[in-house]
Amino acid sequence: MSDILIFGGDGYLGWPTAMYFSQRGHNVTVVDNYFRRNACLELDTGMLYPVPNLKERSKLWHNITGLEIRVVIGDLTDAEFTRGLFDGRTLSEGIFEIGFSGIPDTVIHYAEQPSAPYSLLNYKYANKTITNNLLITNNLMFAVKDLNRQTHIIHIGTMGEYGTPNIDIEEGWLEIKHKGRKDKFLFPRQASSLYHTTKIMDTDLMWFGVRTWGLKITDLMQGPVYGVETDESILDDSLKTIFNYDEIFGTVVNRFITQAVVGYPLTIYGKGGQTRGYLNIKDTLQCVYKAFQSPAKNGELRIFNQIMETFTVLELADLACKVGDSLGLNVKLQNIDNPRKESENHYYNPSYHGLIDIGVVPHFLTEDVMADIFRIVMKFKKNIRRDVIFKGIKW
Ligand code: USQ
């Protein structure tokens, strides 16, 4: 049994990850300051269904499974608060119950502002994204450096760090030959949003920590995630993760399904040739778990590309159309002027075998899998707000 700290335990991926680890017998503590919920409220993004707060979710989880997920509410940009999670102070202040050693074996770091459009709303949201994301990563790094260098950090990066270069994308590293000599460097990064740029900066911070202090870190370069249910959330409707379909926090597959359900023509940005690597939310959990089971070594920044298959936006729209029609919906598509600055027709050939090599078994986006997500969204059709689907936040 391991002590696992999950930073950002209230988010789309954080809460399902907490249940996944708890179900497998680990001592799980989630930390969150409700950044995402508050941002949804502030920006009036709407949600498919209401989600109980962390304490309520944890109580429900305990009632159903007999297992305990500890909850700490606090702001990880505060270095003292973060350090308290590693040196037993928080324990002595009575936030943790007996059982938590105060020395986590693994920290899973999801506590970041995850939306590209949010980061480009205006300079204030750009600043919030930069300060939140970089301070939390830096606080975590220093806490581990000063208080326990055996803690394995699993950080969620993004495939967006690489952008869409005209060469094959490797898993994190590239060997370069130059004037008869060679060396290995981080793969060139060129993000197309400020949010994605903070993830590049995270990687740079962590690479510094690994080189200088011998920290052990896994950085998972994740593509856009889709889906709702996991094997744990199906135990009760109120254990479902937060599901956004709005322009700011909704990712494209979840958005297209929701749009199809309410008869809103699918919002294909530009030509729709943008290709990305996608994964089911169930695979995020699997990938993080496998990375935890076979940790990086001290002095290693291990990078995996966390995607299972690639699609263009058009391919996703066609799939949503086909599946929606088979469920009796009349799905329409529309090409709208792309509010983002991104290539709409580009080379894309990322490598992504590292996670498979350590045992991940992918779920693919088949018609059946998409139909299951459609059925869940259809159950909540009355909650879907058309006015939050497209606002046109420009880069
Ligand atoms: N897109 C549309 N129509 C829409 C929404 C999106 O055509 O209504 C297009 C976008 O222009 C983009 C693609 O679909 O080309 C993916 O967009 P997205 O909003 O699903 O994903 P993105 O903004 O890239 O960000 C999401 C997560 C982020 C994560 C990233 C992985 O929000 O946290 O890091 O996926 S990746 O894209 O690989 O960088």
UniProtKB/TrEMBL annotation:
Entry protein name: UDP-sulfoquinovose synthase Sqd
Keyword Isomerase: no
Gene from which the chain derives: sqd
Keyword Repeat among UniProt keywords: no
Domain (NAD-dependent epimerase/dehydratase) ranges: 4-305
Single GO MF descriptor: UDPsulfoquinovose synthase activity
Organism, scientific name: Desulfotignum phosphitoxidans DSM 13687
InterPro entries for the chain: Epimerase_deHydtase, NAD(P)-bd_dom_sf
Homology family: Belongs to the NAD(P)-dependent epimerase/dehydratase family.
Enzyme Commission code: 3.13.1.1
Keywords of the record: Hydrolase
Pfam families given in the database record: Epimerase
Taxonomic superkingdom: Bacteria
